[in-house]
Amino acid sequence: MDDILPGGQPSTSVHHTCMARTRITSPPLLMPRAFASKLLKLYDYPDPRRPGRMIKGYDCPHALRTALMCAAVAQRLGHEPARVKQYQIACILHDLGRAGLDRQLFGRIWSWARAQGIPTRPREWRAVHPETRYGRETEAFVARYRAAMGEAGIELNPWACEQVEMRLGYARRLAARLRTVKPRLRELAVTWSPWMGRIMLYYYYPEKLAGAQPWVRQLAEILVACEQFEAFSNQRRGRDYYVRRREDLAEAFAYLNALHKEGIISRPVVQALRELSAEGAFDKVLEQARGRALSRRDRACLRQAGEE
After folding, report:
1. Which of 168, 179, 212, 241 could be joined to 107 by an S-S link, Cβ 3.0–4.6 Å?
2. CB contact at 8 A, 282 and 68
3. Chain centre to alpha carbon of residue 198
4. pLDDT in tens, 205-224
5. C-alpha–C-alpha distance, residues 9 and 6, integer Å
6. Distant-in-sequence contacts of 5-10, Cβ < 8 A, 24+ apart
7. pLDDT in tens, 31-44
């Protein structure tokens, strides 16, 4: 795991004095590295097509980088240290509903859907197809597009339907994976609270946080902001299923602004992320996401981020 942690990063915890308005030079890992590795192992998934074989978790470095950034933003916004530690565990596991992701098949399905202008998130699907019963978006997608996808050479067999579920049925699949791994979480002495699962769903299901306490809502917003910010610099994901040829920080900040206008993330969350970017707190994790050093243009964009 050393290759996905910022250089010089302490392996256990940061001082509790690193709270609101304190300069953070590197996003904190609030647990031992060995413990984080055990959490990331929960992304490994038994291959239903080949008994005895495990599918290694897809892009676990993304989950860890996101969790590092989330802790930094939560600290900047003044969340209490004990809660931030628990929050970082949820952030590490935020993609657990995608355990078993078939990189090639997942990319083919969703690249095809995007090319056809088909909604790829539950709330977007329901906006276009309001007749779909809540939580049954996967079944609606399969029924509507099975024939067309077959003509495109993509058979919607049970394994392919699991890949569809990873986006359009994410809440259901995440709940199933959490049920499976909770015994292991108990062995690791992780105290799992309901709010941890709710924040993991916020990007796809913002309605599930209706009436939530303000601190829960803000932690969910931070997860969305940091995950999306990392994803815009994540070269592997960009090639695998965003059909992206380059990473652009200006586009990343523009998307955060769009999420703010939609009411998905609030101004304080956007501003905290921008301030930390301007201070250089995220330079190393973004370089790791890209697999190369930041260009002069990238660094200039980051240094100016706090001015907008």
Report:
1. 241
2. no
3. 13
4. 999 999 999 999 999 999 99
5. 6
6. 5/29, 5/33, 5/64, 5/68, 6/68, 6/284, 6/285, 6/288, 7/284
7. 999 999 999 999 99
The reply to whether 16 falls in a domain is no
Q: Which residues contact 254 (CB under 8 A, 6 or more apart)?
A: none
Q: Which of 21-35, 120-134, 143-157, 220-234 has the lowest mean pLDDT?
A: 21-35
**CA dist., res. 177 & res. 212, Å (int):** 23
Query: Of the candidates 166, 132, 169, 148, which has an alpha carbon nearest to the alpha carbon of residue 156?
Result: 148
* Residues 73, 181 share a domain: yes
Among the three residues 113, 142, 168, which one is the final residue of a domain in this structure? 168
Domain extent, residue 162, equals 103-168
If one counts every other C-beta atom within 10 angstroms of the C-beta of residue 148, the result is: 13
Top-confidence residue, 15 or 289? 289
Question: Residue 288 has which token pair?
Answer: 């790791």
Same domain, 197 and 129: no
Residues with Cβ < 8 Å from 189, sequence gap 6 or more? none
d(CA 4, CA 157): 35
d(CA 299, CA 305): 10
How many domains is the chain partitioned into structurally? 2
Classified as helix, coil or strand, 45 is strand
Q: How many CB atoms lie within 10 A of CB 246?
A: 8
- The DSSP code sequence of 79-113 is --HHHHHHHHHHHHTTTGGGTT--HHHHHHHHHHH
Given this model, what pLDDT does residue 50 score? Answer: 92
- Give CA–CA dist 72/28, Å, rounded: 6
Domain final residue, candidates 146, 168, 190 = 168
